[in-house]
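Researcher: Please predict.
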Amino acid sequence: MPFGAAASPDLTFLPLAIGATAFGVGAVGAVLGVFAVVTMITFVGLTVGATAVGYQMRGEWLEKNANTITAIVLIGIGVVVYRGL
């Protein structure tokens, strides 16, 4: 299975939605609502956490090399995505 497949809403949510149809439209709506809320809480929580950690990092070296570090990380992500890891 490709790396991004688990993060795809289609592949993770579809079995839940199909299973919820056995209990009616309300169950499908509830599953949709829970999925949406949990997704938003996860995104906001990770963003706030990463921001809080980022504000704790100080130092002349980090400020001087921040753009280089960002570029290296983005290139690394690009390589991983390109190779399908």
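Model: Residues 3-83 form one domain.
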